Every structure is written in structure tokens, then in C-alpha cells.
TrEMBL record:
GO CC annotations on file: cytosol
Sorted UniProt keywords: Cytoplasm, Decarboxylase, Lyase, Porphyrin biosynthesis
GO molecular function, one term: uroporphyrinogen decarboxylase activity
Protein EC: 4.1.1.37
Species lineage: Bacteria, Pseudomonadati, Pseudomonadota, Gammaproteobacteria, Chromatiales
UniProt key word DNA-binding: no
Protein name: Uroporphyrinogen decarboxylase
Gene assigned in the entry: hemE
Uroporphyrinogen decarboxylase (URO-D) domain mapped to chain residues: 22-31, 142-158
Compartment(s) of residence: Cytoplasm
Main location: cytoplasm
Organism field: Thioflavicoccus mobilis 8321
Residues of the site described as Transition state stabilizer: D77
């Protein structure tokens, strides 16, 4: 394997000394980039883009050609696992994801198999290997998956949900059924992430986009518990280096201390939590990744710089911070504004590591 030229991101995740705060953006390859829209048009659809390793590789690298980012993230989606389980994923134009065959009954759950990452999800791990080769050691590659709870919400609701009526009815009426589903999805996530790591992913991130919709006791029982099982099941060393595990629960700021106790290396933090407060609560047990409000990128480059300064100041001096947005970049952001954010992080952060 080619030597890694910039390992600042991996070192920050392990709270090792770095010269500046590394930065990447959730959804950094996406619709706000005209070159992404062009490749997606060539692919035909979003899923065809995900399923063609050469095209997935191409869009993964696009943001790195524009901005001096410190990490690449595999271009794919969290819904590849339920799709490979046979649920029939499709994206209706402008409507987000849907499943043709949602999971509603014990028989539906019984029928689900654990997808083989080298068969049904071969296109994902092939993309990982190709991206690693094309990166040539420029920056590390992040692999990812959805959390079992978040994947289950899409699987049971049949798509995006406003108030989680179906999955929460199942959770309160038939917790045994939901646990059976979460067990299977957890097994699928572990083999999927380990296959990404085996093919070259150098860090693994779990997106728990909907964990924050749960009451605290339910969060513990239906989301965190399964993420803890994932952390315990992950390959943590590859190519002679630790493979850091990052957990991100959107709207999960109040549970950061519990998340830090799972054995993960780092926590993603959204913009509703102050990083100084988060850091105090986790007592530097793990690194923190975040947390600029993505809407700051609608403001002028001067204001973006000021808000970057505020986030750096809230984390404060010392290591263990990876700069990111608090959630994915939105499709109507001006790429020049993303450039302003990345530049501000690189210019302003060395003072915090001196
Ligand atoms: O961060 C990256 O650049 C890597 C790529 C990535 C995508 N989806 C590409 C994508 C990642 C990490 C995801 C994760 C994902 N997908 C999550 C968890 C993260 C989060 O945002 O909370 C969720 C909930 C999904 C499910 C999903 N996929 C939704 C709700 C949508 C529709 C969004 C929309 O705005 O229409 C997608 C599609 C999707 N995934 C797009 C991209 C770039 C847009 C597809 C397109 O129209 O080109």
C-alpha cells in the first residue's frame, strides 16, 4: 500500500498531536458541486452512480480536487444494506428514498438475510478498493454505515418519516420484533464495515441520523446498545494502524457521555451542542468531530470565517478535534463558500495546537 502522506485526520481522531485541525464535510461529494451533477447525469440515477465503482470513485475524489480536505469519504449511501436485503430501494425525483417492500411483520423480519459484502454489496467494497488506489495516499478514506436504528426507521416506515408512527408503534407494542430486526441489521452492519476496512477504509463512521428522535431510555435500548455492539465487532487495526470508529447521533448532544463509553474513538457532534460543554462532559475520553451549522455556508465568506473561529474557540486548545459541519452540506450552497470554510480552518487552527 502507498504510504499515507497526510494522516492528520487519523491522528486527530486518536487525540494524538497535530499541527492544525483537520477538516472534511459530511456529504462533501454531492449536488452542490456542478461536477457531481454532471457525473450523476451520466450515471442515470443516484443508485446507478453508487453501483458503478468507477463513477463512485470519480465523485468521491471531486471535492478533493477543489478543496484541500483532510479526508475522503466513500461515495455511497446508508440504504445499500436494506436494498441488498431485498427491500427494493428507489428514489422518487425530489422526494428522497423509498422501499418497495417495507418491513412490517414478524414474517418480513424472519425473511431478511444478512447480505454478503462480497456478493450483493460487492459494488461498495470494489469502490473502496478503487478509491484507495486512486487516492494514492493523499488523505485517509472513511468507510461508513447507517446505525441499526436509523436503517430500521427507513425499513419499517418504507422511506423517510415525519413522526416515525410505524416504527415507534412497533417499538412500544412489539419491542421483541424490533429487537429481532435490529439484531439482524447490526450483524449486517458489522460484516459490511469490516469488509470496507478489509478493502482499504481507514476509519469507520456510523450515522445515527434518527437516534435523536428517541426518548432517553429508548435511545439506550434501541439505538446506543446496537452501536455499542458494532464498535465491539469492528476490525480496529489494519495495515499496521488503528482504524478509528466514529459514532454520530444527530440531536444526540445530551447522550455524548454515554456514547463515549461504547469504546469508540470519536463522536460526531451537531451544531445544537457547544463543543466546550461536550468536551467537559466526555472528559477528553474521545475525540470530537463537528460542528458548524451547515446554514453558516449561506452567509458571506467573512461571516463563515468568523463562525469557523467560534467553533475552533469553543473546542479550545489541545488535540482531539476534527472540524466538520454539524450535518450534511446542503445542495444549494455555493462551492466557494465551502472553500472559504476549509481555508479558514487551516489558517486559524494552528494557534490551537502550538
Ligand atoms: O458524505 C458523503 O459525501 C458520502 C456520501 C453519503 C451520501 N449519503 C450520498 C447521498 C453519505 C455518508 C450518506 C449517508 C446518508 N444517506 C444518511 C446519513 C447521513 C445524514 O445525512 O444524516 C441518510 C439518512 C441517507 C439516506 C438518504 N440518501 C437520503 C435521506 C437521501 C435523499 C437526500 C436528498 O436531499 O434528496 C439520500 C440520497 C443521497 N445520498 C444523495 C447523496 C449525495 C443525494 C442524491 C442525489 O440526488 O444525487
Amino acid at each position: 500500500m502507498t504510504e499515507l502522506k497526510n494522516d492528520t485526520f487519523l491522528r486527530a481522531l486518536l487525540r494524538e498531536p497535530v499541527d492544525y485541525t483537520p477538516v472534511w464535510m459530511m456529504r462533501q461529494a454531492g449536488r452542490y458541486l456542478p461536477e457531481y451533477r454532471a457525473t450523476r447525469a451520466r450515471a442515470g440515477s443516484f443508485m446507478q452512480l453508487c453501483m458503478a465503482p468507477e463513477l463512485a470513485c470519480e465523485v468521491t475524489l471531486q471535492p478533493l480536487e477543489r478543496f484541500p480536505l483532510d479526508a475522503a469519504i466513500l461515495f455511497s449511501d446508508i440504504l445499500t444494506i436494506p436494498d441488498a436485503m431485498g427491500l427494493g430501494l428507489y428514489f422518487a425525483e425530489g422526494e428522497g428514498p423509498h422501499f418497495e417492500r417495507p418491513v412490517r411483520s414478524a414474517a418480513d423480519i424472519e425473511r431478511l438475510g444478512i447480505p454478503d459484502p462480497e456478493q450483493e454489496l460487492r459494488y461498495v467494497v470494489d469502490a473502496v478498493a478503487l478509491i484507495r488506489r486512486e487516492l494514492g495516499g493523499r488523505v485517509p478514506l472513511i468507510g461508513f454505515s447507517g446505525s441499526p436504528w436509523t436503517l430500521a426507521t427507513y425499513m419499517v416506515e418504507g422511506g423517510g418519516a415525519k413522526n416515525f408512527s410505524r416504527i415507534k408503534a412497533m417499538m412500544y407494542d412489539r419491542p421483541d420484533l424490533l429487537h429481532a430486526l435490529l439484531e439482524k441489521v447490526t450483524d449486517a452492519v458489522i460484516v459490511y464495515l469490516n469488509a470496507q476496512i478489509a478493502r482499504g477504509a481507514q476509519a469507520a463512521m456510523v450515522f445515527d441520523t434518527w437516534g435523536g428522535a428517541l426518548a432517553p431510555a429508548c435511545y439506550q435500548e434501541f439505538s446506543l446498545r446496537y452501536m455499542e455492539r458494532i464498535v465491539a465487532g469492528l476490525t480496529r487495526e489494519a495495515e499496521g494502524r488503528r482504524v478509528p470508529a466514529i459514532l454520530f447521533t444527530k440531536n444526540g448532544g445530551q447522550w455524548l457521555d454515554r456514547m463515549a463509553a461504547t469504546g469508540c474513538d470519536a463522536l460526531g457532534v451537531d451544531w445544537t451542542t457547544d463543543l466546550a460543554d461536550a468536551r467537559r462532559r466526555i472528559q477528553d475520553r474521545v475525540a470530537l468531530q463537528g460542528n458548524l451549522d451547515p446554514c453558516v455556508l449561506y452567509a458571506s465568506p467573512e461571516q463563515i470565517r468568523a463562525e469557523v473561529a467560534r467553533v475552533l474557540e469553543s473546542y479550545g486548545r489541545g488535540h482531539g478535534h476534527v472540524f466538520n459541519l454539524g450535518h450534511g452540506i446542503t445542495p444549494d450552497v455555493d462551492p466557494e463558500h465551502a472553500a472559504a470554510m476549509v481555508a479558514a480552518v487551516h489558517e486559524l487552527s494552528p494557534a490551537y495546537h502550538a
